[in-house]
# Entry
Amino acid sequence: MRRLRLCFVGPAQNISTRRWVQWFAARGHEVTVLTVEPADQWEVEGFQQVDLSTRVISRKLSRLISSVRLALHIRRFSPDIVHVHYLRGLAWGILLSRYHPYVVTPWGSDVLEEQGAFRDWGGRVLTRRLLTGADLVTVHSQYLESRVKGFVASGTPIAQIGWGVNLSLFRPGLQTVQLRQRWNIDADQQVVFSPRLAQPFYRHELIIKAFHEVHVKIPRAVLVITEQFADPDYVRRLRALVDELGLGAAVRFVGSITYRDMPFWLNLAQVVVMLPVSDGMPNTLFESMACGAFPVLSRLPQYEEIANLGWNGSLVDPLPGAVAQAVETVLCSATLRHAAARHNRELVEMTGNQNFEMVRMEQWYDQLRSKAA
# Structure
């Protein structure tokens, strides 16, 4: 395949965006990222980053200026493909550029109103126009596909392509002794892990209340809570709740975890709990499954594509008692955990391998380039 000139639009500070971009850069393609959320310079590896953010008094004016700058950069770069990740604000500049071919990958918050989609003035109209004009739309789940179909022009292909997991990093059997020593978790203590962003949307307080019930029956269990992109006031409320419930010695707030460290935490955990109000299809779920941690999840339709009847993952109502019961069942059954770990690893290898997903994406890029030639 001839080298591609690829232009990505999206938040470069987001690890999922960077992993996607860096895969293609490592593949030998010329890659540029246009963003208003730039990555730190040490995180920019193999690709060019163009920061289009601007400081003005009005947020709306800032968005407009950045969108115009986006259109100008795309015209100047003249890539083979423009691929938009995250459709709000900056991405609307694609409409100004009138550039083709372009690919759109909507995230959950772009099209799911329960995640805040379309709150911006004109957001629904501009998002619809962006999707209607796309040459290809990709989605991370069947559920997202069902939600975007109404926005996509008849005849425009929709492909289900996930973020994919780096299976050489996220694998079972990693050494976790140092983590246990650092965070004072004994070898005989089981770990319940809450890995999502430390924001109210992800309902960590519900996990804490459920863990309180778990701790009564399994007093040696430990709850680990990350503080990724933390809302400081929310984290303070979580810590106060831990103290109020008398769980201080059994809960660890471990700060922000790097991508490279996450596989070790997922090896340490027996159970991973995710109870967001809504979701797209989080790669953290696939990474957990690749490492052998058992997922306990909100009863959402998108999760039903992955977790089945409690034997490879539990879907629960967002109530402390229901969550606690599911967690206790997993912690008390090594047989269940080991069987689920084997099945989930095989599932991720078949359906969530980053290399397989990105090769499929590469083929779509090449096809779109050939069609536009």
About this structure: The radius of gyration is 21 Å. The longest strand covers residues 30-35. The CA atoms of residues 67 and 90 lie 5 Å apart.
